[in-house]
Please model this.
Amino acid sequence: MRKVWVAGGVALAMGLSFVMLLVVGVYIVAGNLVNGVSGGSKTLAKGSVPAAYQPLVQKWGNLCSAINPALLAAQLYQESGFNPNAKSPAAAQGIAQFIPGTWATHGIDGDGDGDRDVWDPNDAIPSAASYDCTLAKYVKDVPGDPTKNMLAAYNAGAYAVIKYGGVPPYKETQNYVQIITTLEDSFAAPTTRLDPSKQAAGAIHYAQKKLGTPYLWGGNGTPEQGGRFDCSGLTKAAYESVGITLPRVANDQYNAGPHPSREELLPGDLVFFSPDPSNSRAIDHVGIYVGGGYMIDAPYTGAVIRFDPIDTRKYFGATRVTEDGAKALPSAV
Model:
């Protein structure tokens, strides 16, 4: 359990002036922030891939120039939410969602144990990377971005990409390419300054108006729920008030944009907490950062929406929500 901040009432009493001062700071400090590591190939953001799969994604994501670890992670998240037991109505199987015919042709023995098991991520993740690179070779002479052409071939087939000289005019395929390339930013460790969200102040203002509201597990703030929220219900409603639709649960909200470090937080960033510091899928709490080391959050049953400190042993990381990032998230993973 997280330690309760005994001075919470003092922070609450500081009220709107405290919050708005911090919000104004969003646009003052942002120009001085620089994120991430410099140079080199893309690396994965902290905990964005479950620890059991991170070495595989990092290794096989560098198999060819058309892919990178963050892009491969985005594909796996889009396909299965990193669920090795995922099944689809179209008979797609496993963490990489191979259909049986494709697996029979393109599945590889990634871990060298003598079999090719679609349900084993040690085979399926290398196979996904290998299949991507094979498709990239098929469409290497097609004009345009080779990564986008590869993704289009994954969705629509290499023949369609060759026929149309690039991403074919199929809405499903165009959406697939757009989603994966956008989600890539959520899985990559930032290497440049992250711009502040234009909607940050509005999201904070919404949450600030809810201070003192009792917590309700599963609460979305509806009239029949007495206007009450749980943690991710509050953050979802706050960003919905400024035109950004987030997923319902906290561990999917983590993928709604790039990830500033603790030192680079700005008001409006979502801050996340997890019992497992290596796995974003284990995130169990979220709040809206307001500056000064504090957030507005809906903590737990019996508590009210309030200011809390973010620096606890469960602090996981943060997300700077973007409109494109939120739109790219699958409705269910």
About this structure: The longest strand covers residues 285-291. Residues 1-40 have pLDDT under 50 and may be disordered. The beta strands are 270-273, 285-291, 294-297, 306-309, 315-319.
